[in-house]
Design a protein that fits this description.
alpha+beta; about 15% helix
Amino acid sequence: MANESDVAAWEVEPIPDSDELYKRVHRNLFKPDKTIMTGAFHHRSMSTDWAKYSSADDARNRAPTPDDNAVVKMAVSEVRQIQDLAVEHSPLSENRSHTDVVGKKSQKVQVLLRRISTLVIPLADPEA
Protein backbone atom coordinates (compact mmCIF):
# COMPACT_ATOMS: atom_id res chain seq x y z
CA MET A 1 0.00 0.00 0.00
CA ALA A 2 1.37 3.43 -0.94
CA ASN A 3 2.28 5.96 1.70
CA GLU A 4 -0.07 8.90 1.86
CA SER A 5 2.90 11.14 0.96
CA ASP A 6 3.47 9.08 -2.22
CA VAL A 7 -0.08 9.56 -3.51
CA ALA A 8 0.02 12.13 -6.30
CA ALA A 9 -1.86 15.36 -5.86
CA TRP A 10 -1.17 16.07 -9.54
CA GLU A 11 -2.59 14.58 -12.71
CA VAL A 12 -0.34 12.41 -14.86
CA GLU A 13 0.39 14.27 -18.09
CA PRO A 14 1.82 13.21 -21.44
CA ILE A 15 5.42 14.39 -21.83
CA PRO A 16 6.30 15.77 -25.28
CA ASP A 17 9.43 14.55 -27.05
CA SER A 18 10.64 18.16 -27.21
CA ASP A 19 10.99 18.39 -23.41
CA GLU A 20 13.92 17.54 -21.13
CA LEU A 21 14.49 15.55 -17.96
CA TYR A 22 16.88 16.27 -15.10
CA LYS A 23 18.60 13.52 -13.14
CA ARG A 24 20.72 13.81 -10.03
CA VAL A 25 24.01 11.93 -10.01
CA HIS A 26 25.64 11.33 -6.63
CA ARG A 27 29.38 11.99 -6.29
CA ASN A 28 29.95 8.25 -5.62
CA LEU A 29 28.90 7.63 -9.24
CA PHE A 30 31.76 9.65 -10.75
CA LYS A 31 35.10 8.21 -11.78
CA PRO A 32 38.35 9.89 -10.64
CA ASP A 33 38.54 11.61 -14.06
CA LYS A 34 35.10 13.16 -13.28
CA THR A 35 33.20 11.16 -15.89
CA ILE A 36 29.91 9.61 -14.85
CA MET A 37 29.83 5.86 -14.25
CA THR A 38 27.24 3.95 -16.26
CA GLY A 39 25.87 2.65 -12.95
CA ALA A 40 24.21 6.03 -12.48
CA PHE A 41 21.63 4.84 -15.01
CA HIS A 42 20.93 1.26 -13.86
CA HIS A 43 17.59 1.51 -12.01
CA ARG A 44 14.72 -0.25 -13.78
CA SER A 45 12.49 2.67 -12.84
CA MET A 46 14.94 5.58 -12.99
CA SER A 47 13.74 8.68 -11.18
CA THR A 48 14.05 12.01 -12.98
CA ASP A 49 12.41 15.45 -12.96
CA TRP A 50 10.49 16.90 -15.90
CA ALA A 51 11.86 20.30 -16.86
CA LYS A 52 8.32 21.65 -17.34
CA TYR A 53 7.91 21.72 -13.56
CA SER A 54 11.49 21.71 -12.27
CA SER A 55 14.76 23.49 -12.78
CA ALA A 56 18.09 21.71 -12.52
CA ASP A 57 18.63 23.53 -9.21
CA ASP A 58 15.27 22.28 -7.91
CA ALA A 59 16.22 18.71 -8.83
CA ARG A 60 19.55 19.00 -7.04
CA ASN A 61 18.04 20.63 -3.97
CA ARG A 62 15.59 17.74 -3.48
CA ALA A 63 18.55 15.47 -2.64
CA PRO A 64 19.21 14.78 1.05
CA THR A 65 22.66 16.40 0.61
CA PRO A 66 22.52 18.64 -2.48
CA ASP A 67 26.28 19.33 -2.51
CA ASP A 68 26.91 15.60 -2.99
CA ASN A 69 25.00 15.64 -6.29
CA ALA A 70 25.51 16.86 -9.82
CA VAL A 71 22.64 17.17 -12.31
CA VAL A 72 22.44 16.00 -15.91
CA LYS A 73 19.77 16.69 -18.49
CA MET A 74 18.45 14.35 -21.15
CA ALA A 75 16.16 15.06 -24.09
CA VAL A 76 12.94 13.06 -23.82
CA SER A 77 13.11 12.27 -27.56
CA GLU A 78 16.59 10.74 -27.16
CA VAL A 79 15.53 8.64 -24.17
CA ARG A 80 12.56 7.29 -26.12
CA GLN A 81 14.82 6.34 -29.05
CA ILE A 82 16.57 3.81 -26.80
CA GLN A 83 14.93 0.42 -27.26
CA ASP A 84 12.54 -0.71 -24.52
CA LEU A 85 12.63 2.56 -22.53
CA ALA A 86 9.55 4.61 -21.73
CA VAL A 87 9.22 8.04 -20.15
CA GLU A 88 6.31 8.15 -17.70
CA HIS A 89 5.19 11.19 -15.73
CA SER A 90 4.71 9.93 -12.17
CA PRO A 91 4.12 13.02 -10.01
CA LEU A 92 4.41 12.82 -6.25
CA SER A 93 2.44 15.02 -3.89
CA GLU A 94 5.63 16.95 -3.06
CA ASN A 95 7.13 16.82 -6.57
CA ARG A 96 4.92 17.51 -9.58
CA SER A 97 7.90 17.06 -11.93
CA HIS A 98 8.70 13.48 -10.88
CA THR A 99 9.08 11.26 -13.95
CA ASP A 100 10.28 7.68 -14.32
CA VAL A 101 12.38 6.31 -17.15
CA VAL A 102 11.11 2.75 -17.19
CA GLY A 103 12.64 -0.33 -18.76
CA LYS A 104 15.49 -2.78 -18.43
CA LYS A 105 18.83 -0.97 -18.22
CA SER A 106 21.35 -3.36 -19.73
CA GLN A 107 25.00 -2.25 -19.82
CA LYS A 108 24.44 -1.10 -23.41
CA VAL A 109 21.39 0.97 -22.39
CA GLN A 110 23.32 2.51 -19.49
CA VAL A 111 26.08 3.56 -21.90
CA LEU A 112 23.51 5.11 -24.24
CA LEU A 113 21.85 7.01 -21.37
CA ARG A 114 25.21 8.34 -20.27
CA ARG A 115 25.99 9.35 -23.86
CA ILE A 116 22.78 11.43 -24.20
CA SER A 117 23.25 13.11 -20.80
CA THR A 118 24.67 16.60 -20.52
CA LEU A 119 26.09 17.85 -17.25
CA VAL A 120 24.23 21.02 -16.25
CA ILE A 121 25.29 21.33 -12.60
CA PRO A 122 28.73 19.95 -11.75
CA LEU A 123 29.66 18.52 -8.39
CA ALA A 124 30.45 21.03 -5.70
CA ASP A 125 34.07 21.05 -4.61
CA PRO A 126 34.16 19.03 -1.36
CA GLU A 127 37.03 21.21 -0.14
CA ALA A 128 35.06 24.46 -0.52
